[in-house]
Amino acid sequence: MSNQRQILVGVLGATGTVGQRFIHLLSSHPFFTLHALGASSRSAGKPYGAAVKWKLPFPIPARAKALVVKECKAEEFKDCGVVFSGLDAEVAGDIESAFRAAELAVFSNSKNHRRDPVVPLIVPLVNPSHFSIIPHQRSIHSPRLQTGFIVTNANCSTTGLVIPLAALEAAFGPLESVMVTTMQAISGAGYPGVPSLDIFDNVVPHIGGEEEKMEWETAKILGGISHDGTAFEMHATNPMRVSAACNRVPVIEGHTEAVSVRFARRPPPSPQQIREALEAYTCEAQTLECPSAPKKVIYVHDEPDRPQPRLDRDFQAGAGVNVGRIRECAVLDIKFVVLSNNVCIGAATSSIINAEIAVFKGLI
Ligand SMILES: NC(=O)C1=CN([C@@H]2O[C@H](COP(=O)(O)OP(=O)(O)OC[C@H]3O[C@@H](n4cnc5c(N)ncnc54)[C@H](OP(=O)(O)O)[C@@H]3O)[C@@H](O)[C@H]2O)C=CC1
Ligand SMILES: N[C@@H](CC(=O)OP(=O)(O)O)C(=O)O
What we know:
It is globular, with a radius of gyration of 20 Å. The protein is built from twelve helices and 14 strands. Strands 3-2-1-4-5-6 form a six-stranded parallel β-sheet, sandwiched between helices. Strands 10-7-11-14-13-12 form a six-stranded mixed β-sheet. The chain is an alpha/beta fold. The model has no long low-confidence stretch (mean pLDDT 96). Bound molecules: NADPH dihydro-nicotinamide-adenine-dinucleotide phosphate and aspartyl phosphate. Residues 13-19, 39-40, 42-43, 72, 86-89, 91-92, 109-110, 156, 187-188, 190-191, 342-343, 346-347 line the site of NADPH dihydro-nicotinamide-adenine-dinucleotide phosphate. The site of aspartyl phosphate (PHD) has 13 residues, from helix 8.
C-alpha cells in the first residue's frame, strides 16, 4: 500500500452532515487527497470554513478550510480521480449522472441511483463482488473513455442490517424471513433535520420511504450478479421476506435495530453458533487491506444491556457494527440487536471503503 499513488478526490454536498464526515475522514487518508469541494449556490464561491456550519467535535481540517466551495459542475472536478457525493437527494440524481457522463467515478450516498439496474448498491463489508457490473455500466454510460461510473452505498439502516445478515447467510445458508424494528438517530435526517419540538421527549414512528428502502435494498445487496456481469439477481429464498418498522428517536448518532430472523435450514443454528459466526465474519475489504475497513466487522457484546448508541457508536471510528442480545425468538428463530453509526459505516465510511476497493480492483 505504501506504493499506492495519491488520488485527488472531490466531495459533493461537502457542507452537509455526510459531507462533513467525508472531509474529516479524508483529511488523514493515506492515498486520497482532498482537492475540490462542491455544494449549493448558497455556499459556492466561499471558502469552506466560511460556508460550512461545522458540527463535528474536531477542528475543520486546514486543507479543507481554505478550499473555495464550487458549484457542482463536472468541469470544476475534472482533475479528480474519485468524487464522493453527499448531496441532497433532491438534486443528487441529475448531478451524479452528469458527473458520470463527464467520465468521473462517483461514489454516492443518495437514494437516487440505488435501483438502477446497472448501478451497484454496495455495502463494502458485504457485496463488493457487485463491482463486476462496472464494465457493463461503462459500456452504456461512459462509452467514450470508459472511466465514468456511479457506485451507491445503501440507506444507513439497511447497511446496519445487512452486515449481520450476510454473516449469518455465509455461515448457515439462506434466510427465509427478517423482521426489523429501527430506532434511528436524528442525524440521519441531515442538518438541521427533525425540529427539536418534534423529537425531544418523543418517538416518531414514521420515516418517509425508509421501510420500503430497507426491504428492497436488502434483497439487492444480498442477491448476486449474473455470470456475464450485466444484471443483478435479487435474493430469492422463496423469496426472502423482509419487514421493517422504522422509528426516529432522540439520539444524535447511531441507529439501533431489533432484528429477528428465520433460516431456511431446519433445525436452525443455536444462539451460541450465531454468536461464533458473527464474531468470525471477515470480508474482502479486509483481505484487500483497505485502510478504512474495520479490524473487526462485527463486534459481539455479551453484556445484557449493550450495544448502546452513546457507548458503542464510535468503536473502530464507527466503521464496524455492534451486535448484542443474541437469543432465541419464539416466533422466528433468533433475535438480536444491532447498532451501526449512520454517518460513518452508514454513509461516508462506506463510500470511502468502496472507493478503496475500486482502486485495489484496478477500476480507478
Ligand atoms: N445523514 C445520514 O446519516 C445519511 C444520509 N444519507 C444521504 O446522503 C445525502 C446527504 O445527506 P445529509 O448530509 O444528511 O444532508 P444535508 O442536508 O446535511 O446536506 C445536504 C448537502 O447537499 C447540498 N445541496 C443542497 N441543495 C443543493 C443544490 N441545489 N445543489 C448542490 N448542492 C446542494 C448542501 O449544500 P448547502 O450547504 O450549500 O445547502 C449540503 O452540502 C442524502 O441523499 C441522504 O439521504 C445516506 C445515509 C446516511
Ligand atoms: N433516511 C435515513 C438517512 C438517509 O438519508 O437515507 P437515504 O440515503 O436512504 O435517503 C435516516 O433518516 O436515518
